[in-house]
Structure formats: C-alpha cells, structure tokens
Amino acid sequence: MLHVVSPKEQIVKEEFPSDTSFLSLYPVAVREARPFILVLPGSGYEHLASHEGEPVARWLNDLGIHAGVLEYQVGDFEITSLLEDVEYALQWVRQTPKDWPVIPEQVGLIGFSAGGHLASIVATIGTEKPDLLLLGYPVISFHDPYAHIGSRTHFLGEQPTLEQLQGFSSDQQVTSQTPPTFIWTTANDAAVPVENSLLLASSLSREGIPFELHVFEEGRHGLGLSEENRECRQWLDLAETWLQKHGYAQARQQMRLFIAGDSTAAQKGATEKPMTGWGEHLQSYMDPSVHVDNRAVNGRSTKSFIAEGRLADIEKDIQAGDYLFIQFGHNDEKKEDPTRYTDPDGEYRQNLIQCIQSAQERGGIPVLLTSVSRRRFTADGEPDPLAVGAYPAAMRQVAEETKTPLLDIFEASQQLYRSMGEKESQQLFMHLPEKTHPNYPAGVTDNTHFSDEGARQIAQLVAEAIRQCTELSALKQRMLERNQDSGERLIHHLVN
Q1: Per-residue model confidence as pLDDT tens digits over 171-185
Q2: Is the pTM of this model over 0.70?
C-alpha cells in the first residue's frame, strides 16, 4: 500500500499498516514541467539507508529534476505488494495533477544496493516501467556465487526455488523494453560483487539497450554520494552528464547564496579592518558555480533589517534554487533600542518565519544559523550558554517547527572557544593594544567582533555545518574541500 507524504504532513509510521510504503516528495521550485526521478535506498531489504535517500533527492533537485524517496516495505513483506508499491509510485507521479508539473515520459528510477535490485526488477518485469534507470552498486543476480545473501533471503526466503532465482535476477529479465541504464560500482565491493553489474551490462548490451557502466578500482559498499571517496565521487559528474544527454538534467547556472545577518557576518570596510565578518571568507569554500552575496549589515536585528527594506531588496534578486542564510540575535536582544529589540519568543520568531517564507515563496532555500557566540566565560571557565541570551534556543524551535535546515553556529563556536580556552580564544576577536593599528589608536577589547583569523575559523565552522546537514546535500556538492595537506580540491566538479 502506497502512502504519499505531503511536504507539511506529520505522520507516525507505526500507525500505518505494516505493508505501507511511504513516498516523500522533493519537487523543484519551477513552473515549467520537469523530469522526475524516484529514489530507492538500499540495505538488504532489512532496513533503509538514509544517506541513499534524501541526500540523493536533493542532488537531483540541484540538477533541475523533481525527486521522491520511496521508503518501501522491508523485513516481512509480500513481493507482489512491494513491486506494486513502486509501480503505483511511478503511476502516481505520471498521472496525478500537482502544483509542480512532471513530464510523464521522463520519469526515472535510481536505486542503490538492494534498492538497485528493486529498481532493476521493476524496470525489467514491471508493467509500469521507468523511462530511465540509474543504479549504484546494485544487487542484480540471486544466483550463487555472486548473490548478496542477505538481500536474497529477505526477498525470497531461506529456500528459494530455481524459478524464483531466475525470475528475480534482473540480468535474466532484460528485454528490448528495458530503459536506458547508468550503472556504477567498485571492483573490490566486498558485499555485492562487481559481477552483478557486469552481468547486467552484458544483458543490456545483448538487447541493444543504451547504457553506461563505470567500475572504480576501489571503494567500500554503500558509498551513496561518495563524500568520503574522491575517486568514486566522479560518478556524480558522470551521471549528471548522462542525464543531460538524455534530456533530464539542466546545465546548472550560477547559484547565489545570500547572507542576511548582522556585523558578525558583514563585510567590513577599510576603516574597520582588521575587523572581519565570517561571511567574507565563506566564498573560499564554494566552487565557482556559487556566488556568496553577503547582505549582512552592522548593527541590524531581524526587526531593523526588515524595516529598512533589506529583506525586500533580497526578494528582488533571489531566484529559484538560491539559498538565503539567516543569522540574527546579537542586536535583537538590545532592549534599550526599540528599533532593534525583539522578544525571543515573540517578534523574533515571527521575523524569522517571515524571512523563511520570503525565500520559499520565490523558490529559494532558507537556512537558519544560530548566532555566533560572544566570547564570554563563566566563573568555572566554561563558555557562557547565555552569551546571546535566549535567541539561539528560539531559532532552534523555529527551525524544528518550520522544518527549515539549521546550522547551529552558536554551539559550534562555543565548542571552539572551549577547545582554545579563555586566554587563547582572544586571538579570534578584536583585541588590540593601543597604538598597534591606525584604525584603533586607543586599542580595542571586543569580544563580539572577529579578527581576520576569527572570521576564518567561524567560516570554517559554517562550511563544516553545511557538510554535516543532510538537507543541504545539494549545496555540499558545490563546495570546495580544504585541508592543510592538499589545499583546495573540488568536491563536485561543475559540468558546463
């Protein structure tokens, strides 16, 4: 039984019958009809690997493709019911009217491991076939010696018949009606032998089906987007080019990442240096397809930023697929200034929601960032958990209630200060003796605003938080990986 989960629907899966599959939707914010690809995660028909679900859908979105993730039945299931759920999902996508139109002749499947088996079986013997098939390290054959025993056992039971083994080994079921197929795997996959992919490729070749097969020399099973394996990460570029060839993926235009915030992020002028905002260093973590548009301004709160028309200015420029990073709090807590102060449980929350909705209404992707912590320590030498009052906690609540991606920079910065200690952390901030810099002849002791080194380290925290955020996997693919040994290298090479 298929249940389509609407974006704002809150469900308790345990309240549904055990034979329910859940289709979660990830549409692209565009008006014209676009292709759709359904994602089937793997994990041996025993459970589902989350890293092969939503992150893959977000990557497809970044290519201009509508996506959905099918959390299909696992464990104890009827094969017919399971296959019907996948076919119903494809049928629903093709036939059901939606606010985001789909090209019904361009509905594909992508599956990983056991999800690759399920995708390939539907693509070969299903009555509702996909128009395109992508497979990552797929389970293909249920015959020894190449079978993945766990997948076979959960799918067919302990003692499958020869007829079952033959009928559900998808390399044996390829026909002239099988769709064009993209396959990638690794030669030393210890869980699902590479022969699975080779057998399928041979069958596709025999039937004259267009296909690509990429076998990387080394890589463990279950890599997903291959964030940890530079060599295997090439599959993303290869698949993107292949999807463009088949008319699914659009050539990606430059994406803009807007920052709406205060002085901790803002660009500083020559008379303010060496004071630096962390937003000045974020571009160095992005590949050339991302332009960081820093609209943060010194001294602004959510209230004054909106009142001065600065959010409205972003609204004029933001487009579908752009990001809006939202970070306020330091000036919202200034009770002595009615033009800036907001109640953390009232107006502050409302203003954050206004910023979120502003981006969403224009097809943009809002991201909340809790305020960077001030450098303030308690008597026992710990960073003060109330260094920016109740505002970080209020933002976390808004993120949870609105299902908005959250980067907890307050917590990350406090961990940084803790690791450095009270004295050493001074170097991150504007601590200058008198007569050491022409812009600050009297010296300065400032535990809110950053030195250039401090801004660099906070930007690094933001970049790392992006990499750790599942909901931002598409943005992560456009980032540069930086380390002391190798300098900079592209996580994902943009294909023009």
Answers
A1: 999 999 999 999 999
A2: no
Tell me whether the omega of the peptide bond preceding residue 145 falls within 30 degrees of 0, making it cis.
Answer: yes
DSSP 433: -
Res 489: pLDDT: 31
Tokens representing residue 20 in the block = 């329910």
In 129-218, which ranges are continuous DSSP H helix?
A: 149-156, 162-167, 195-206
How many Cα atoms sit within 13 Å of 440 on the Cβ side? 16
Do residues 154 and 45 lie in contact, with contact meaning Cβ atoms separated by under 8 Å? yes
In DSSP notation, 217-263 reads SS--S--TT-TT-TTTTHHHHHHHHHHHHTT-SPPPPPEEEEEEE-T
What 8-state DSSP symbol labels residue 55?
H
Q: What is d(CA 75, CA 78) in angstroms, rounded to the nearest whole number? A: 10
Instruction: Render 180-203 in DSSP notation, one character per residue.
Output: PEEEEEETT-SSS-THHHHHHHHH
Helix (H, G, I), strand (E, B) or coil at 354: helix
Reference 32, options 104, 100, 84; nearest CA is 100
Residue pLDDT, tens place only, 330-348: 999 999 999 999 999 999 9
Integer Cα distance of 305 and 416 in angstroms: 28
Q: What would the mean pLDDT of 122-144 be, rounded to a whole number?
A: 96
